[in-house]
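We were asked to recover a plausible sequence for a given structure. The inputs and outputs are reproduced exactly as logged, with field labels preserved.

PROBLEM: sequence recovery
POSITIONS: 152
GIVEN STRUCTURE:
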């Protein structure tokens, strides 16, 4: 019986000493994502610089024939900025270089879906035309060349 009395008294003593939590009226909650900050602008600038650097590095690797390293760099860039049509275009051109025709076509389509830039659209249609030609789909290749001429 003594064993139950001491723990019970200890719990009662703790409860008696506890202060109720009071909420401060001075606290004002603000949703941070609604407040434009200079920091958010600088983060976008840093991302753009990082992406430009990654594109440069991937191009160097692809020119050197290190296409797998170039792909790894592009994939890193796409994790940072998945809607960057230029990265998708570069990815498509490397897949074309690797003779992965169908994937080159799909990646060029993805790039086209993300851009309105005429030069990029033209490049993507050219990549698709080459890939279609390699797969023996000559009608699709001709159609892609027509679309390339329309966008240039």
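RECOVERED SEQUENCE:
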């Amino acid at each position: 019986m003594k064993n139950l009395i001491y723990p019970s008294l200890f719990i009662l003593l703790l409860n008696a000493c506890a202060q109720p939590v009071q909420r401060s009226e001075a606290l004002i909650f603000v949703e941070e994502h609604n407040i434009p900050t200079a920091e958010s602008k600088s983060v976008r600038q840093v991302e753009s610089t990082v992406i430009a650097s990654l594109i440069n590095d991937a191009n160097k690797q692809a020119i050197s024939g290190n296409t797998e390293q170039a792909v790894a760099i592009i994939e890193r860039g796409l994790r940072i900025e998945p809607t960057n049509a230029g990265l998708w275009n570069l990815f498509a051109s490397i897949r074309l270089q690797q003779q992965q025709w169908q994937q080159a076509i799909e990646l060029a389509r993805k790039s086209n879906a993300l851009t309105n830039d005429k030069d990029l659209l033209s490049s993507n249609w050219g990549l698709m035309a080459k890939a279609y030609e390699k797969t023996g789909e000559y009608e699709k290749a001709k159609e892609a060349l027509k679309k390339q001429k329309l966008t240039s």
